[in-house]
Design goal:
The complex is a heterodimer of chains A (389) and B (137).
Chain A (H helix, E strand, L loop, with lengths): L9 E8 L10 H16 L8 E4 L5 H9 L5 E4 L7 H14 L4 E8 L5 H5 L27 H14 L7 H11 L13 H6 L2 E4 L1 E2 L9 E9 H4 L7 E7 L32 H6 L8 E4 L5 H9 L8 H4 L18 H4 L6 H12 L12 E6 L3 E6 L2
Parallel strand pairs in A: 2-3, 2-4, 9-10
Antiparallel strand pairs in A: 1-7, 1-8, 4-7, 5-6, 8-11, 10-11
Chain B lengths: L15 H8 L4 E5 L5 E2 L14 E5 L3 E10 L13 E8 L4 E4 L14 E8 L5 E7 L3
The chains are: A alpha/beta (389), B mainly beta (137).
Amino acid sequence: MSLQHLRDKAAVVGVGKSALGRNLGLDALTLMSHAFKAALEDSGLKKEEVDGLIVNTGGAECDRLPQLLGIDVQWSSQTWSHGRMSGIILEWAAMVVHAGLARNVLCIAGYSSHTVRTRTVRGGSGEAFRPGGGPHWEAPEYGIIHPGTLPTLAFQRYCHLYGYKPDLLGAVSVAQRKHASLNPDAVYRQRITLDDYKKARFVVEPLRLYDFAAVNDGAVALIVSSAEQAGACRKRPVYLSGMQGMQGGKEWVIFSRTNMGVAQQSLSREARQVNQAVYRMAGVEPKDIDAVEIYDSFSPEVIFDLEDFGFCPPGEALGWIQGGRIEPKGELPVNTHGGHLSEGMLGGFNHLAEAVRQARGECGERQVPNARLVQYTLGPGVSIIFRGT
Amino acid sequence: MANEQPPLPSITPLYEPYYHYTRQRELRMQRCQACGHVRYPFTALCPACHAEATEWARMSGRGAVASFAIYHQAFHPWFQNRLPYNVALVDLEEGPRVPTNIVDIRNEDIRIGMPVEAVFEDVTDDITLVKFKPRRA
């Protein structure tokens, strides 16, 4: 079976978001209910037609949600609350509808300060103390507690290897805040300058306050249907054209570029570009992509993914993003909703929603003109190329 | 200050020998008895050749700073009065890249590539951590 087998065989037919904000005072299930209702309206489907469910929050929501949402699902699954599986959820859904196990799969995530968030951010919980390092290679006994430490360490090494001043990273936060200023949903809409960036306090030096995701409450729902089913929905379908899974191995760690992370067993520490499957599946190249939504809990991820996914060669991204290239009207707009840094932290689900809406052309002031191919990435490996019609 | 206990590592059976040796001021890691690969993180199978037999081989303790960062905010009460503090990755001569702290140096003097050597710091009666200090190349 060739890699092209799944190209355009499934589509996102509905997108919905709850309110976003800091401490909204609502629990995650309530926010998810709001997002589901919005996605259902967007799709034109009836709730009785939703027969699949994948959810990525911390509890046993795959049995609670069907009751709360009034749906009967024939196929359901659940991942952990971390954003690294968000893209994968859509990929599963595409496989499920293509295989005929369900017709319309609800993919949903919700975050609330009343439920899951503090577990990962505070580092004081069990997960960070997994033997050999936490899920982001935390090592609390050495004070490596914040999940952004690894990308910070990788970024510091990156600057050393390629001769950059770390403050150049400010171009990411400045660009994303510019995008967010055009997005009525964004939690942080006030534009910042490079000077504002440089004046902000260090959190984990060389990263500053603006390099970290704005943690907040909110939920996103997407409905994935088979290509045949998608044609009957309210809006034009956005196809999942190319997909690539989470990678793992001796050189890979989350949020870093190849061979720049910790706990690696290989002595080969050369950068190499391996993210090609997503392009082969979609039959396109990086130069064909109209906008990229990059998982950005920490701004160095933007640098690493631009290189890992072939938008520029290893060692060049930090220079390449200067001068407005990833800003609105730039050559390659990145995180057109503002990303986690400015729209808000929704585990990458907001990136997926934005990719679909950009590919539909319904993003108003922040719309990338004629966007048809919009890519989602989360290094190492996760990527989806969305194709509008 | 209340609750001022240092965060401690999780020690499972696979990690017990490592901490047994650090208490004795020795840095040892698993070395595959079949192919010689030094394993880190510690594993039941050699990731290179899948042999199980391993010995806890003494490391030279020498390495170089692969990267570092400075915490200016405490995310655990223990560090509240210890800011700013450094965290680092050190490449051991034998291969593994390990998380650690650099000691006996001002944060602003730490450099990537700097030669370092292991030192041992008792954090409780039972747990000794491996840290690194600058060494003359």
